[in-house]
Fold this sequence. Notes:
The chain is of the alpha+beta class. The chain has helices at residues 31-38, 53-70, 115-129, 145-153, 176-184; strands spanning 4-6, 15-17, 21-24, 74-79, 85-92, 101-106, 135-140, 157-164, 167-175. It has a single domain, classed as 3-Layer(aba) Sandwich (Aminopeptidase).
Amino acid sequence: MTLDHGQPDPHGVPTLLTPRLVLRGWQASDVPDYFAIVSAPGMDDHTPQPKTEAAAWSQTAFQIGHWALRGYGMWAVEDRTTGQLLGRAGLYEALGWPGCEVAWTIRRERWGQGLATEAGRAVIEFAFAELKRDDLISIMTADHTASIKVATRLGLTYNRTETIQGGEYSIYAISRAERSHHSAG
């Protein structure tokens, strides 16, 4: 996959364009739509989500701050044709986190369309090509079959189970060398 890189936003967040998606920096106007996405029924079955619009605003501010502190983070993901906010995808590595995590959250009614996989591929390519990361992880509950399928499609493989913030999570991993092999295959 070849990524088209758009211009960075005012906060220095690069825009990534895939065939169907725009991965871009966050805007204050995203908060109501983002809250609608994460508060939909079932969205917090596997990953804690903001419970109020104010909490969604705080998470959005955190995501912008992650870019400022780390030089990478989560992008807002929108439909390239309609401009509809679809969720988020990107890299996460808070203090004490077990590694640089590639993660995604896509609007529930758009599951099963390959959007998380498309966004994840763009994020992984950015991490290895632009950030020169050697290893990435993805963290999920052992029963989150949809995310496990996405991780597997992206070339990540089960690595270990770890207790994180009081819960048991499966960690999937991929290295730059494995990505090169997976992309060639």
